[in-house]
Design goal:
The complex is a heterodimer of chains A (about 120) and B (about 110).
Chain A: E1 3-7, E2 10-12, E3 18-25, E4 33-39, E5 45-51, E6 58-60, E7 68-73, E8 78-83, E9 92-99, E10 107-110, E11 114-118
Parallel strand pairs in A: 2-11
Antiparallel strand pairs in A: 1-3, 3-8, 4-5, 4-9, 5-6, 7-8, 9-10, 9-11
Chain B: E1 4-7, E2 10-13, E3 19-25, E4 33-38, E5 45-49, E6 53-54, E7 62-67, E8 70-75, E9 85-90, E10 97-98, E11 102-106
Parallel strand pairs in B: 2-11
Antiparallel strand pairs in B: 1-3, 3-8, 4-5, 4-9, 5-6, 7-8, 9-10, 9-11
The chains are: A mainly beta (about 120), B mainly beta (about 110).
């Protein structure tokens, strides 16, 4: 059974850092890429970043480039999103989602979402 | 970046209605479009991938079509559990992008 369990969200001051985690079970991160997607309160979905199955290829949305970093620990089968220099506009519910190449890159499994609030 | 424009942004319909949502891309994206359904406070659920392939487990009343720059999601007979927000996503080019969403409400 595929499951993605997220942790690490919370309230943080502007300019500070936060790390989100996404623990995968039922499949190996060695075999799948993973996305981060966010949703600001009352807004639509916004793609943030991806880490390919190779563990090294990454892409980022322009609005987080240079501030956010996506990585993984295969020994823990866990994906991370390190968020630095946080801004008020980064306030959102953050989701991790599995990238399945067999589905033309679509995401078939998602984490439960974890809220991040950037506020002084 | 590739922009996705969904229309309408809001749709009011009755149970049993046939509804169609359109997603237009600012550039050609072949068939690399997925459609998701999202309910309040929940993660999105995959409905369609590859523009027209029904995801395993998604109800057969959902169908997708299109190629290039124009894509559609059709619900053949709207059911009470279908009232939600629907998003298209392009998977052709990074950065990936989502459409603005279409909220389907009960008339």
């Amino acid at each position: 059974q595929v499951l993605l369990v997220q942790s690490g969200g919370g309230v943080v001051q502007p300019g500070k850092s936060l790390r989100l985690s996404c623990e995968a079970s039922g499949f190996s991160l060695d075999n799948y890429g993973m996305h981060w997607v966010r949703q600001a309160p009352g807004k639509g979905l916004e793609w943030v970043a991806v880490l390919w199955y190779d563990g090294t290829t990454t892409y980022y949305a322009d609005f987080v480039k240079g501030r956010f970093n996506v990585s993984r620990d295969t020994s823990k089968n866990t994906l991370y999103l390190e968020m630095n220099s946080l801004r008020a506009e980064d306030t959102a519910l953050y989701f991790c989602a599995r990238l399945d190449l067999a589905l033309s890159g679509a995401s078939d499994f998602w984490g439960q979402g974890i809220p991040v609030t950037v506020s002084s | 970046d590739i922009q996705l424009t969904q229309s309408p942004s809001f749709l009011s319909a009755s149970v049993g209605d046939r509804v169609t949502i359109t997603c237009r891309a600012s550039q050609v994206i072949s068939k690399y479009v997925a459609w998701y359904q999202q309910k309040p406070g929940k993660a999105p659920n995959l409905l369609i991938y590859g523009a027209s392939t029904l995801y395993s487990g998604a109800p057969s009343r959902f169908s997708g079509g299109g190629f290039g720059t124009e894509f559609t999601l059709t619900i053949s007979s709207l059911q009470p559990e279908d009232f939600a927000i629907y998003y298209c996503q392009q998977l052709n080019t990074y950065p990936l992008t989502f459409g603005g969403g279409t909220k389907v409400e009960i008339k």
